[in-house]
Write a structure and sequence with these properties.
Strand content: 25-35%
Helix content: 10-25%
Oligomer: single chain
Length: 452
């Protein structure tokens, strides 16, 4: 009897031991499964069921993920079923998917309409989607013009549009600029693109510009070019610029637009409460590179005629005698200095603008005033411009009749504009005057009109 009770107790203990052992083994297996993660796989395609190569599939908030292969497939492990997958691809809308109980994913990406449906203004002034056009076009908004302002706003676009080359002339502040789209197309003809402002073609001729025949005297006669029509536009008044390239883009304007078209759209009033915007910008400039001069030899002195030669092919400056130094009415020095660096000063340009915009559903009003003041790097070179712009837009008969009224007033003044040639050109004499001529003396002891 006692033996039977002892046997039953041993069996009971053995059964409980196996039970706890089974629970331990089950817990260990579950832990091992949790540590190994969940294997997932799938394929990423576009709306046409074409696989997307190089799409990014990763776990949100981590760097765990993969790039799809040539078939658009991916496969990796996620920590748990609460993990969120982030899928992205250039030109497609990004997606986020929770893993859940799914182990194989078929992900379809959708086109990003904001990138593909960019709206541009065509040659007829009609807005169309960029992808529907059969010619090359590029759109630049106002922010590209306002980063670094220039008296002529077109200079601010240098390097920001493919195939467009902009070359400012030597006229300093307020001078014109040469614009080329995809290079020169004619040797003797005009290569400048047509300028269209708010749907109206505009002449962008340059006052005082030399033609092919007129440039034959530029080698000796002082010549300077004036400003162009683009230089009279306040950059703050521009909404955006569409650059139309190629002959097809300018079919409406005929041969005048064979070099391309710059479509400029100016700002107009916006519906809503009164909005006042003030903008101010300052730019300072110095010459980037200057010629290197020798400061050892100077011009020879002719004691008989008491004249100084017009070149620096004479003897060493430190070897001139007192008689030679005081032979004529000219002032000489015995050592050279950097006259070019002393000649140029720091140029400055200040742009200030204020605009007022307001409107209702049927009437929009816009007014702006802009002021530009510039002092060039050449002494006494100054440029000033005042621009007033008023624009009123009316809409009648449920938007079937629209009236656009625009008025502009521009007053600009330029003083001592730099130019080219040899006569009366300060740069020519600055670079070629004999090195032993004391330019500092003449700067401090010169005479202007009426003997002052």
């Amino acid at each position: 009897m006692k033996f039977t009770k002892i046997l039953k107790k041993k069996l009971s203990v053995l059964t409980k031991g196996r039970f706890f052992l089974a629970i331990f083994v089950l817990a260990f297996a579950t832990s091992a499964m949790a540590q190994s993660g969940i294997k997932i796989s799938g394929v990423v395609t576009d709306s046409q069921n074409e696989p997307l190569i190089g799409a990014s599939v990763k776990i949100k908030g981590t760097t765990i993920g993969q790039i799809t292969d040539i078939d658009g497939k991916f496969a990796f492990e996620v920590p748990n079923q609460n993990s969120v997958l982030q899928i992205s691809y250039v030109g497609m809308l990004p997606q986020e998917i929770t893993v859940g109980t799914t182990r194989v994913f078929n992900i379809v990406m959708e086109d990003d309409s904001k990138q593909l449906d960019e709206v541009v203004v065509t040659a007829m002034g009609i807005e169309r989607k960029a992808k529907s056009l059969t010619y090359a076009t590029q759109k630049l908004d106002n922010s590209e013009l306002m980063r670094v302002q220039d008296p002529n706003f077109i200079n601010s676009l240098q390097g920001k549009a493919a195939g467009m080359s902009i070359t400012p002339n030597v006229g300093g502040a307020g001078g014109s600029s040469k614009i080329l789209l995809r290079g020169n197309k004619s040797i003797l003809g005009n290569n400048t693109p047509l300028i269209v402002v708010d749907g109206i073609p505009m002449s962008n001729s340059v006052s005082g510009q030399y033609g092919v025949g007129g440039g034959e005297t530029m080698g000796y006669a002082f010549a300077t070019e004036g400003s162009d029509a683009l230089g009279s536009i306040n950059p703050d008044d521009i909404e955006d610029i569409n650059i139309l390239k190629g002959a097809n883009a300018a079919a409406l304007y005929g041969s005048a637009a064979s070099n391309g078209v710059l479509m400029i759209t100016t700002k107009r009033g916006k519906e809503g409460k009164l909005n006042v915007k003030v903008s101010s910008n300052a730019t300072f400039e110095r010459p980037l590179l200057l010629p290197k001069f020798q400061n050892v030899y100077g011009g020879n002195v002719n004691l008989a005629t008491k004249q100084l030669t017009a070149d620096s092919w004479g003897k060493r400056m430190d070897q001139f005698t007192d008689e030679e130094l005081n032979a004529g009415d000219f002032k000489l020095r015995t050592e050279g200095r950097n006259d070019a660096e002393d000649f140029f000063k720091t140029g400055s340009t200040f742009n200030n603008s204020v605009s007022i915009s307001s409107g209702s559903k049927n009437v929009l009003t816009y007014f702006s005033y802009g002021n530009t003041t510039s002092h060039g790097m050449v002494e006494n070179n100054k440029y000033g411009r005042h621009t007033f712009n008023f624009r009123q837009n009316y809409s009648f008969i449920n938007n079937r009749l629209k009236v656009d009224l625009a008025m502009n007033y521009v007053n600009q003044n330029t003083k001592n504009r730099p130019g080219g040639g040899t006569t009366l050109n300060p740069l020519y004499h600055l670079y070629l005057t004999p090195r032993n001529a004391d330019m500092q003396y003449y700067k401090e002891n010169h005479m202007i009109e009426e003997g002052k």
